[in-house]
Design goal:
The chain is α/β, with parallel strands linked by helices. It has two domains: about 170 residues, Luciferase-like domain (TIM Barrel, Alpha-Beta Barrel), CATH 3.20.20; about 130 residues, TIM Barrel (Alpha-Beta Barrel), CATH 3.20.20. It is built from ten helices and 13 strands. The strands form three sheets. Strands 1, 4, 6, 9, 10, 11, 12 and 13 form an eight-stranded parallel beta sheet that branches.
Length: about 300
């Protein structure tokens, strides 16, 4: 397994775009493998739209890969999404890592977009299959329950052939979907112990489908902080997590302390079958984010990367 560590954001500590680019430049000039952006259309907290950010990253960087963790595919037309992904992959010379999920049924986006969550799994299956076809084929024809295309093509095609199709979700339906359509799997907010049986279930389902996924294409993430667990940003994150997941121990989802604690968490996920990581620094402000990122680059990446 080839371990690679990318970074995501547990918050948005930037005063403006110049702060964001300062952080991106730090990552670009280091051994950070990739940057990842989550997706919410409706949010009172600052959260950049991922496809727009991916396009901007394509122009700002030359080395970093970047991906969506994950895009809620049901809220976007697959033809438009396929074109966006192909264009970003073209502009970045093949550095896009597209990852898709359904979107949780309780999200306000279902009502706001007028789509409704009923049938969201079937809708996602149609959309994912169409993405894969549109990236590879011309004159795509399809008539399904949710989408109908009559001889459509996109050009230019992605640089990566095939363009990766990472899928999120841990339900039995998501496992089957990943085995049928995916080229990678990205965990949600899950511990290593929760991830391990999902990886095994995907592998079993792949055997049934007569398909395979590269062992290096299983990903997961966790939040980290160098320093004390008593820091206000850790306490605040712990409270927010407990409000969201009352029956779970938040300490299992973070790595707080020094490099040894972070590397130990990486090892736990590696033992569960994970080789690609999205680590999210718990930072109070921009200066803190830069410090947390530098320490990860200097103290963790040299030990974690193969």
């Amino acid at each position: 397994m080839s371990v690679r560590i990318g970074l995501g954001l547990a918050g948005h500590p930037f005063e403006g775009a110049s702060d964001l680019w300062e952080w991106v430049d730090l990552c670009e000039d280091s051994a950070v493998d990739s940057l990842w952006q989550s997706d919410r259309l409706i949010s009172t907290d600052p959260l950049l739209e991922p496809m727009s950010l991916m396009a901007a990253l394509a122009g700002r960087t030359r080395r970093l890969k970047f991906g969506m963790s994950v895009v809620s595919i049901s809220f976007r037309d697959p033809l438009v999404l396929a074109k966006e992904c192909a264009t970003i992959d073209y502009l970045s010379d093949g550095r896009l890592l597209p990852a898709f999920g359904l979107g949780a049924p309780q999200l306000r986006e279902w009502t706001a977009t007028g789509i409704g969550s009923k049938g969201r799994g079937r809708r996602a299956d149609e959309a994912l299959g169409l993405l894969a076809r549109l990236w590879e084929e011309d004159d795509v024809r399809f008539e399904g329950e949710f989408y109908r295309y009559d001889g459509v093509s996109i050009s230019p095609k992605p640089v990566q052939r095939p363009l990766p199709l990472w899928i999120g979700g841990s339900s039995p339906a998501a496992i089957r979907r990943t085995a049928r359509l995916g080229t990678g799997w990205l965990a949600g907010i899950q511990t290593a112990a929760q991830v391990a049986p999902v990886v095994e279930a995907i592998r079993r389902e792949l055997e049934s489908c007569g398909r395979s996924i590269d062992p290096d294409h299983y990903g997961a993430g966790f939040s980290y902080r160098f320093g004390s667990g008593d820091h206000p940003v850790v306490a605040r994150t712990r409270r927010a997590f407990t409000a969201f997941q009352r029956d779970l121990d938040p300490e299992q989802y973070f790595a707080v302390g020094g490099a040894d604690e972070i590397l130990a968490q990486v090892e736990r996920y590696k033992d569960a079958g994970i080789s690609k990581f999205v680590l999210r620094p718990l930072a109070a402000d921009m200066a803190d984010l830069m410090d947390q990122t530098r320490r990860l680059i200097e103290e963790v990446l040299p030990e974690a990367h193969d």
